Amino acid sequence: MKVPYAASMAALTGLSLLVPSAYGMEFFNCGDNARFLVSLMMGFGSRDPTTIQRDTDPPYPEGQIYGARRFEMPIQSNTMRSFMVQSISGSQPIRLYEKVSSGWKFCPIEDYDI
């Protein structure tokens, strides 16, 4: 039995949000119920030079920034929040930030083992 590709990908994406809490996956934790699987964000990171660093973006003094991709998403009570994924050189190839009133807040990676 064949399942349409788009439908199966949507289902797997939805399930991937449930599975990690049971099996100990890594998340970017931005606080207030904004958690993103590191593995999903890896695919969202950009190495497109047209998305390169803006003056207001956080610097990366340890290496090079290859690109940045921004997105908005409703989290908790449908409040729209803004995020940015930076593609960087280094052992962890991406970083995630949330836009807050004072600038960009770094979202650390946490392991949710049970």
Automatic annotation (TrEMBL):
<protein>
    <submittedName>
        <fullName>BgTH12-07821</fullName>
    </submittedName>
</protein>
<feature type="signal peptide">
    <location>
        <begin position="1"/>
        <end position="24"/>
    </location>
</feature>
<keyword id="KW-0732">Signal</keyword>
